[in-house]
Amino acid sequence: MNSSPVLSLQNVVAGYGPTTVLDGLSFDVHAGERLAMIGRNGVGKTTALRAVMGLVPLRSGSLHFKGQDIAALLPHQRAERGLGYVPQTRDIFPSLTVEENLLAGLKRRPRSALDEAYALFPRLAERRRNGGTQLSGGEQQMLSVARALLGRPTLLLLDEPLEGLAPLIRQELLRAFAHMAQQTGIATIIVEQQVDEALRYAQRAVVLDHGTVVHEAGAAELLEDEATLERWVGMAVH
Ligand SMILES: Nc1ncnc2c1ncn2[C@@H]1O[C@H](COP(=O)(O)OP(=O)(O)OP(=O)(O)O)[C@@H](O)[C@H]1O
Ligand SMILES: [Mg+2]
């Protein structure tokens, strides 16, 4: 890629209390790129996304978004600049309806922008007056992603957006994500336990271990690289 990256982490060190989780983490994401971040449980994938959002402070290293140093910005300031986040624990408002949840994601955009979300996830349109608690797990995930998208992020961070969903719904959602990414030019980082699905969605992948990038490759290439997957993820994909 010849363009400068939209997101760049260099030698990021971060953790919780006495524990260092991110230990010299460096990687870039380019405009419109779909990047998979994979690795075993506990290697620091969620912490990496949280550090990008400002929910975990950097102890050292640098973090640039659209060429600017964002390490000192608060999470909401990062969101305003174009970072979207769908956390591993979904953050929809259960007491609000689908439509009210979506309105909360609009920021300064007109209400008519809701049609984008309904076009992408027709199921949400059918359930627009339902409360958050009446939604299935998959619908809650769609709602969480749709709300993040309505803010028109430059880069959307998706932490296990398919977790706990039935295979058919997983495929449906991945297709919707890929379609959305292509249509809108929004870059995405996807973290997913089902490595094969993440690699089929993504164009490029970074593999994490102990809070650092141990391997980087084209997604299609890594999908065929059983030795690397076996070593760092501990599973063969098929
Ligand atoms: N709030 C926290 N306080 C203390 N330690 C934490 C906290 N959150 C995570 N950790 C620890 O940091 C390490 C990395 O956790 P993280 O959630 O980033 O891993 P992950 O790669 O996302 O794992 P998974 O695949 O299971 O979601 C783990 O050892 C975890 O126990
Ligand atoms: Mg995680």
Shape: globular
CATH architecture: 3-Layer(aba) Sandwich
Radius of gyration: 17 Å
Largest sheet, in brief, is: 6 strands, mixed
What is the fourth-level CATH superfamily?
P-loop containing nucleotide triphosphate hydrolases
- Work out the strand percent: 25-35%
Query: How many individual β-strands?
Result: 10
**Which fold name corresponds to the CATH topology?**
Rossmann fold
Can you count the helices?
Answer: 10
Structural domains: how many: 1
Structural class: alpha/beta
Bound molecules: adenosine-5'-triphosphate, magnesium ion
**Can you give the helix content as a percent range?**
25-40%
Quick overview of this protein structure:
The chain is 37% helix and 26% strand.
Structure write-up:
- The protein has 238 residues and is α/β, with parallel strands linked by helices.
- The protein has one domain: Rossmann fold.
- The protein is 37% helix and 26% strand.
- It is built from 10 helices and 10 strands.
- The strands form 2 sheets. The protein has a 6-stranded mixed sheet, with helices on both faces. The chain has a 4-stranded antiparallel sheet with strand order 2-1-4-5, with helices on one face.
- The longest helix is centred in the last third of the chain and has 18 residues.
- Adenosine-5'-triphosphate binds next to strand 2 and helix 1.
